[in-house]
Amino acid sequence: RRTAAVIPAAGRGVRLGPGAPKALRTLGGTPMLIHAVRAMARSRAVSLVVVVAPADGAGEVKNLLDEHALPDRTDILVVPGGETRQESVRAGLDALPEDVTDVLVHDAARPLVPVDTVDAVVEAVRAGAPAVVPALPLADTVKEVEPGRPGEPEPVVATPERSRLRAVQTPQGFDRATLVRAHDSVAVNGEGATDDAGMVEKTGVTVVVVPGHEEAFKVTRPLDLVLAEAVLARRRA
Ligand code: C5P
């Protein structure tokens, strides 16, 4: 079997505040995207990484990848992304060579995922699971609300039992045909899907969970950058 990783990196990162596209912002002086590509390439199972760049930024991303050291045994492709994460992942899937059988989808916004987590996902797919997500139990209790008008208090509808909930991370791993089928059958509307496994669930395929890792958190808001810098500094110490 051959495993490739698709890295959607075409988001603007609005919630992080003004500045460059999120994937191009630096952590410890190195763009998040480079950290994310290295995190995938560190797994011996991953022989190809497809980077999905901002639609108008593929050239810039190619230059960036050329400027940074990456393992020789990993091939890298850059393709332009879409308006939504879902469209960007689709663009990455469309660029995969025929011999790829297994696909990881990994957010550029999770630059610090440890290689053991990547390998655990790859192993579970190779062992026969068509869809695998790394996930962690939640610290917070979660409420479902009835979204109201902006500024008005929102009524709580339900409190799901916390012990049954998991926060899912990436890389999410798939049998290629299963993921392509999910993308073919789920229509793009609004923001698109925020999670590939969710699209697979809608096709009736069972998704399984393996243990995630605290350091696979998503860099979304300014505070996440502070945490990411601290994790990196601790690793380098
Ligand atoms: O916005 P969010 O944090 O959910 O984005 C998750 C990942 O999807 C990021 O790596 C982002 O660059 C990517 N993305 C994309 N194309 C979009 C929107 C988001 O590749 N249009």
First-to-last CA distance: 37 Å
Largest sheet: 8 strands, mixed
Based on CA atoms alone, the radius of gyration comes out at: 18 Å
CATH class: Alpha Beta
What share of the residues does DSSP label as strand, in percent?
15-25%
Assembly status: single chain
Number of helices in the DSSP assignment:
7
Broad structural category: alpha/beta
- Overall mean pLDDT: 94
- What name goes with the CATH superfamily? Spore Coat Polysaccharide Biosynthesis Protein SpsA, Chain A
Can you tell me the overall shape?
globular
Organism: Streptomyces antimicrobicus
Enzyme class: transferase
Site (Transition state stabilizer): 15, 22
EC number: 2.7.7.60
Provide an overview of this structure.
The record marks 162, 218 as: Positions MEP for the nucleophilic attack. Keywords: Isoprene biosynthesis, Nucleotidyltransferase, Transferase. It catalyses: 2-C-methyl-D-erythritol 4-phosphate + CTP + H(+) = 4-CDP-2-C-methyl-D-erythritol + diphosphate. This protein is an alpha/beta fold. It has a single domain, classed as Spore Coat Polysaccharide Biosynthesis Protein SpsA, Chain A (Alpha-Beta Complex). Helices cover 31% and strands 22% of the residues. It has helices spanning 32-41, 58-67, 85-94, 115-126, 176-185, 196-202, 222-236, and strands at residues 3-8, 26-27, 30-31, 46-53, 75-80, 102-105, 131-137, 144-145, 156-158, 166-168, 172-175, 208-211. The strands form 3 sheets. Strands 1, 4, 5, 6, 7, 10, 11 and 12 form an 8-stranded mixed beta sheet that branches. The mean pLDDT is 94. Cytidine-5'-monophosphate (C5P) binds at residues 8-11, 22-23, 52, 81-85, 88, 107-109, 194, 218, 220.
